[in-house]
Write a structure and sequence with these properties.
11 strands, 5-stranded mixed barrel, about 550 residues, Butyryl-CoA Dehydrogenase, subunit A, domain 2, two-stranded antiparallel sheet, alpha+beta
């Protein structure tokens, strides 16, 4: 029996043809790009032809916990589909972590890495997640050099050899608090040159890794010496867990292919990393990297949704016209495209800053910008990707709600980016902490105004951008004048505003460097600025309004 069958969207090579990722590298590093062009195209082909089919297999064959072996001994084995293991071998061979430490592209090594991660992530079944923590652990060991063991761990974490490479987890979350690590109850007892860890880790990804970084408390009698950072091998030479009991695997909204567990540390042997009581400070190096990874994955997911939606626009006909010919559909996708491009340029700016910092080539102003923009980048790209993917799923109509199309998975998985590595509100408060510590936002405004002043060919756009910056400055001043409660209540809007302005400044810097300030660029920046202005709330709440909202929400229950 015949009839109509709709052709679905086709996944294509993200580095073939004229794409944002390819254009950025080509224009930013014109001397280097010809040397890596073939490599990138081949990597893009592997994403389509090898990674993606394996990702689909892993997504449809979820991890299983095997608590006991046949004769009753507790083993807590995680059974992974072979597709997951194969992808882990492939990311080692492709040097997804290694390329940042080989530093073949000097200060642009992190830029190169994040572009590859953004392209790969949507076809990786979240293999990128343990890689982000692996990268963070490698950076901590590189920075702190805690002992002879660290060099061996470091080499394994950045290896390109699948048989030698280790991955690492980051175990901070406990029942007493997620982002609030001050409630950490895990205790550490000295045991010769090691420590023994006791406590519950409520939410631990990368349980199949070989290594983990964990926070714990050291006591001297009745005195709490504060949180310290520890490194532990998850299994011993016989592949038995290191005095760890796995209570259960978490049943999550998304990220189904990646196992996340609840653990009991029952005297797990660990090594101290860094100074006693400096655990939160030491683990910040991991968080900086995992937050940038988070943003690269959010940006990459939004790009994947756009790629599929644009391809589908050429294939789906409704009311006598293809979707690409319906003005309202075009306008909807155009707005998402602009937001994606703005996010991408901020990601590239932060990745470049990180690359310069790791080579000790950054200025004091650039170090400040990296501290400020890392939480801003993460929270802003996470929220924008959720909004964008929601629209893109809708753009496929009913097909976007059918599991077989793989489109619903984009929506389930994208929600995690605003939760992992700090929720939007937690990161907004991080922005305030940077402001309090530094005492000023002047370096940010200096960079922003310098970037905007490069728009010599668009005086009205330049004026509008400077005005937007002044509005955000006034908003911050007004919130500070109202007191701490008002400032805290304004933190989210401030951080979102900084994300928007920082993305525009980053985009302008790129256009100026690459000599691509043409009419199309001016139009895009003007359009995205108009979108930002419509969607940013710069109203400061006074104490009376804050108390009113609190009473309305909670005191009347």
């Amino acid at each position: 029996m015949g009839g109509f069958f709709q052709e679905g969207p086709q996944l294509t090579n993200p580095f073939a043809g004229r794409t944002l990722y390819k254009d950025y590298l080509q224009k930013t590093a014109p001397d280097t790009f010809p040397k890596i062009q073939t490599e990138l195209i081949e990597f893009g082909e592997r994403i389509v032809s090898k990674y993606h089919p394996l990702s689909v297999l892993a997504e449809t064959n979820h991890p299983k916990q095997i608590r006991y072996e046949a004769w009753g001994k507790r083993i807590d084995h995680i059974e992974m589909h072979p597709a997951w293991d194969q992808m882990q071998s492939m990311v080692a061979e492709d040097g997804i972590v290694a390329c940042a430490y080989e530093r073949k592209f000097a200060e642009y090594s992190r830029v190169y890495q994040m572009i590859r991660i953004a392209a790969l992530h949507p076809s990786s079944a979240f293999v990128i997640c343990p890689l982000s923590m692996t990268d963070g652990a490698a950076r901590v060991l590189e920075l702190l050099k805690p002992g002879p063991f660290a060099e061996d761990y470091f080499k394994k974490l950045i290896s390109r050899d699948p048989k030698r490479m280790w991955t690492a987890g980051q175990w901070m979350t406990e029942r007493s608090g997620g982002s609030d690590v001050s409630g950490t109850e895990t205790m550490a007892e000295k045991d010769g040159e090691y420590y023994k860890l006791y406590g519950t880790k409520w939410f631990t990804s990368a349980i199949t890794a070989q290594l983990a970084m964990a926070l714990g408390r050291i006591r001297d009698g009745d005195k709490d010496l504060g949180l310290s950072l520890f490194c532990l091998e998850i299994r011993n030479a016989e592949n038995r867990l290191n005095n760890i009991q796995m209570n259960r695997l978490k049943d999550k909204l998304g990220t189904k292919a990646m196992p996340t567990a609840e653990l009991e540390l029952q005297g797990s042997q660990a090594r101290l990393i860094g100074e006693v009581g400096k655990g939160v400070k030491n683990i910040s190096s991991i968080l900086n990297i995992t937050r940038i990874y988070n943003s690269a994955c959010a940006v990459g997911t939004l790009n994947r949704g756009l790629m599929l939606a644009k391809d589908y626009g050429h294939k789906r006909k409704a009311f006598g016209r293809y979707l690409k010919d319906h003005p309202l559909h075009v306008r909807t996708l155009y707005n998402i495209e602009l937001r994606h491009e703005a996010q991408f340029h901020l990601l590239m700016r932060v990745a470049h800053l990180m690359g310069k910092t790791e080579l000790n080539q950054s200025s004091a102003e650039e170090n400040y910008l990296l501290r400020l923009l890392t939480p801003v980048l993460k929270l802003w790209t996470a929220k924008e990707s959720v909004r964008g993917i929601s629209e893109l799923v809708e753009s496929f109509g009913g097909a976007g709600y059918i599991e077989d199309t793989e489109i619903p998975r984009l929506y389930r998985d994208v929600q995690v980016f605003s939760i992992w590595e700090g929720t939007t509100n937690i990161l907004s408060l991080d922005v305030l902490r940077v402001l309090r510590k530094e005492g000023t936002l002047d370096p940010f405004w200096g960079w922003y105004n310098e970037s905007v002043n490069k728009l010599t060919g668009a005086p009205q756009l330049k004026s509008d951008l400077l005005s937007q910056g002044e509005q955000l400055m006034n908003f911050l001043s007004s919130a500070m004048a109202e007191g701490q409660e008002a400032l805290t209540a304004s933190a989210r809007n401030l951080a979102m505003g900084l994300g928007q302005l920082a993305s525009l400044a980053s985009w302008i810097d790129y256009a100026h460097t690459s000599k691509s300030m043409d009419d199309v660029f001016y139009r895009k920046v003007s359009d995205i600025l108009a979108y930002f202005e419509r969607n940013l709330d710069l109203k400061v709440l006074g104490e009376d309004e804050i108390h009113h909202q609190r009473a309305l929400l909670f005191d009347t229950l």
